[in-house]
Design brief:
Layout (H helix, E strand, L loop, with lengths): L1 E9 L4 E6 L4 E6 L12 E9 L2 E9 L9
Antiparallel strand pairs: 1-2, 1-4, 2-3, 4-5
Length: 71
């Protein structure tokens, strides 16, 4: 599993991006890949998967409900 920070998640559209702070890589996430709801700034754990469009975050869940990345 990887750890990252939700850069944004558009609830109405059902997608967003997660950034891995150490590498600054960003991965797409769709609402169907969420185990629990997320919002901007949350620290999350996820599994990196690949499809024909590229890498994306799957099995995404907050590290803790109260866990927020500072800033």
């Amino acid at each position: 599993m990887m750890t990252g920070v939700v850069q944004f998640f558009l609830q109405d559209k059902g997608y967003g991006y997660i950034r891995v702070p150490e590498t600054r890589e960003e991965f797409y996430v769709h609402r169907r890949n969420l185990l629990l709801p997320v919002e901007r700034g949350m620290v999350v754990r996820f599994v990196l998967r690949e499809n024909k469009q590229g890498a994306y975050a799957d099995q995404v869940k907050p590290v803790a409900d109260f866990s927020k990345h500072p800033g």
